[in-house]
Amino acid sequence: MSLCAYCRQRKGKRPCPSLNGSICSSCCGEHRLVRITCPNDCVFLDTGSDYQQKRLGEQFRPVRRDFYRELDELGSAKSVGLFNLLEVITFSYFEGRRDGQDAEVVTAIEALRRELSPLHIPSAPMPVFAEHLKKEYENIKKENPEQIADMADAPEVLDHIIKFISGFSGKDFQSRRFLNGLIGYVKTFHPAIAEHLKKKHEQGHIILPGESFMPPSESEPHTHGPGCEHQH
Q1: pLDDT level of residue 214 (50, 70, 90 thresholds)
Q2: How many CA atoms lie within 13 A of 212 on its CB side?
């Protein structure tokens, strides 16, 4: 059996049409669509992507829950609502796409932050997803003005969101770790919402799901004391 055509260390067990040789499962899983340009008809593409998304979705779940708690402590329900909206827009745009990267998400949020900043300075034309994100934010902010952070608070909230996404994504410039984590999380733990968001959007923009996939609020711990009716 020949060596992996990518790492040249492990045995190559899968045929890789892009490398014209065999590739080990580790390199295939880690580098597909990131450092290796995979053809759409590769038999390992869908299966591997689904597995990777599910695995990262499970890792994303507790980190995401902690971040929602951080946002809630930062300001108000509007801060939480803004991140939830960004998740909805990002999932809807990138679900089913194999070429998306975390850098696109970060760049788009940075562009939105500049637009909402009181010191906004006109810049070069926005990338495609950045323009899409700005449009969806404006549409939903107009329809739900009391639910999402506005120009007064959004820049600070967006700074925290950028830091969170960058931290989960890691240092690889072409990373998809955040996108796969978010998409895998929604598909695994909220399949009904995933199906809703995958449908065609009415009137050219996102229709928010009726069910939220924000983490449930935690009840306050019970403290035994005077007046407590529990049996001791």
Answers
A1: low
A2: 11
Cβ atoms 78, 148 nearer than 8 A: yes
State the Cα torsion 64-214-87-31 to the nearest 10°: 40
- Phi first, then psi, for residue 124 (nearest 5°) are -65, 165
Sole residue written with tokens 């990002």:
90
CA geometry: angle at 44 spanning 41 and 49, to 5°?
105
- What region does 64 belong to: left with phi over 0, alpha with psi -120 to 50, or beta? alpha
Q: Please, are residues 14 and 32 in contact by the beta-carbon 8 Å criterion?
A: no
Instruction: Say how many residues make up the chain.
Output: 232
The answer for residues whose C-beta is within 8 angstroms of residue 15's C-beta and 6 or more apart is: 21, 22, 23
Specify the pTM.
0.75
